[in-house]
Each structure stands twice: as C-alpha cells, then as structure tokens.
Design a protein that fits this description.
Rossmann fold, alpha/beta, about 230 residues, binds adenosine-5'-triphosphate
C-alpha cells in the first residue's frame, strides 16, 4: 500500500513485504507493505492484537524481521546503519521511558550520542514550542519521576522532536491521556509539521477513529486474523 503518489516525490520509507515469525515459525505479521512520502500523515487503525505494534516496531527497526526489507530513501538499511536510521525515523511508544533526572535532562538525553550531536541547535526551537503551551512554572526543572503520565508523554514527544526526525512512528501515544493533554499532544505535532523545514511525515497507530480523522491525511485499516494481510486505505 502506498501513501501519497505525488508525482516524482522520493519515497522516504518503504516496508516491502515484511513479516515477523515466532520461533515456532508461525507468522505474526506477514507480507505487509507500506510507503511513506514526505508530508504523509498516516493513521493506522485496527483491532486489538492484529499486529499493529509489531508492524510499527519492525518499521522502526527495533525488532528483526523474518521476511521482506525496509528501505530508507530507496536504500536498504543494514545493521551498521541502524543508529543513523533511528535518529531519522524516531519511534514513540505508548508508555514513555524517561531517564532519571529533570525534564531538561530528558529533553537533552539523546544529544549525548555522537550521531545526534549536530542536533543540539534544535533544543532552542523545541523549548520555544514548549513555552507556547501552558506548563507549570519550573517545568524544565521538575523531576521526571514526579511527572504525570500525560506530562511524561509530552516530554517524550518533545525529546523525539529535538532529534528533528524525518519520520515519527507513534504507537498509541495518547491512549490513557485526558482529552486536554491529548489535544495538546496533537497541537504539538501540528506545529512541528508546520514549522519543520524538511517536510516530515508520521505514522500514528490509534484506536480512536475521531483522532485519526483529526490528525491524518490518510487512514489505513490493519486487518486481523489474516496471513495475507495488506494495509488498505479507507
Ligand atoms: N514476541 C512475540 N511472540 C509471540 N507473539 C507475539 C509477540 N509479540 C506480540 N505477539 C502477539 O502478536 C499479536 C499482535 O500484537 P501487537 O501488539 O502487534 O497487536 P496490536 O495490533 O498492536 O494490538 P493493540 O491494539 O492491543 O495494541 C498479539 O496476539 C500478541 O500477543
């Protein structure tokens, strides 16, 4: 399934017939294909247990795949290139893992890695983004252990955006957040898309159809219980 088919635009990310197997050889996901183009806002919806998270983790190259391949800018990504890939294709999980220390420590965490060092300049723009949303005074100095689930997820999102990703992969990032924080999360994504100078894209798994309609330009349905699964546009 392809995202946009906009003339000659280069495909950013392509999953070509990928699949994951259990150690017993049973397919958990099988023959799944997806293309992501610059500016794509893709929502994936589908039943519980249908393999959406497995698919997204495979796209993020967090899990090994047993068939197919992942292409980034039309190039096969090998194991050695995975750190560079992960700094461009950033994965945000449902329950963020924050490191010990303050919010600021967390925001700057990924910048300590060589591959991300040239991204330090992004901190200022992300802090500006944060300042446009109401946050308690001294938020940057709050300990991560003292944050609410919603605040933690906002911090995880900003931490991801500091990396100036080309693609953000999000696995139900707002499930469990209250409506106000959910909207705040969506607005941050919206501003990021508006202000980024590199036409980024996202793939967003959600159970919430109204959210999918709010945030996405394309909604794809993930089918359950089929081995020959394909993602289809709604
Ligand atoms: N490592 C694994 N080994 C075996 N089965 C697994 C493994 N990981 C996940 N599964 C199974 O694969 C199926 C798909 O899981 P996945 O988490 O991708 O579903 P999902 O569509 O994201 O569900 P939800 O909407 O509830 O988050 C589930 O039945 C899950 O139990």
């Amino acid at each position: 399934m392809s995202g946009k088919t906009d003339g000659d635009q280069e495909c950013l990310l392509e999953a070509r017939s990928i699949g994951r197997q259990t150690s017993a050889g049973e397919w958990l996901i099988h023959q799944l294909s997806l293309q992501v183009f610059p500016g794509d806002r893709i929502a994936i919806v589908g039943p519980t247990g249908s393999g959406k998270s497995l698919f997204l983790r495979s796209l993020a190259m967090l899990d090994e795949i047993q068939e197919g391949e992942i292409l980034f800018h039309n190039q096969h990504v090998n194991e050695k290139e995975t750190p560079a890939y992960r700094s461009q294709v950033v994965y945000l999980q449902q329950r963020p893992v924050l490191v010990e220390g303050t919010v600021e420590t967390n925001l700057k965490f990924a910048l300590q890695f060589q591959i991300n060092q040239e991204k330090a300049a992004n901190v200022a723009s992300i802090l500006e983004l944060l300042s446009s949303f109401e946050k308690p005074e001294g938020f940057l100095n709050r300990q991560s252990s003292a944050l609410s689930g919603g605040e933690g997820q906002i911090v995880a999102l900003l931490r991801a955006l500091i990396l100036a990703p080309q693609i953000l992969l999000m696995d139900e990032p707002t499930s469990g957040l209250d409506p106000q924080t959910t909207r705040q999360f969506e607005q941050i994504i919206h501003k990021w898309l508006e202000t980024s100078n590199k036409t980024p894209a996202f793939v967003w798994i959600t159970h919430d159809h109204s959210q999918a309609e709010r945030v996405a330009s394309q909604i794809m349905t993930f089918p359950a219980g089929t081995l020959e699964a394909v993602l289809t546009s709604e």
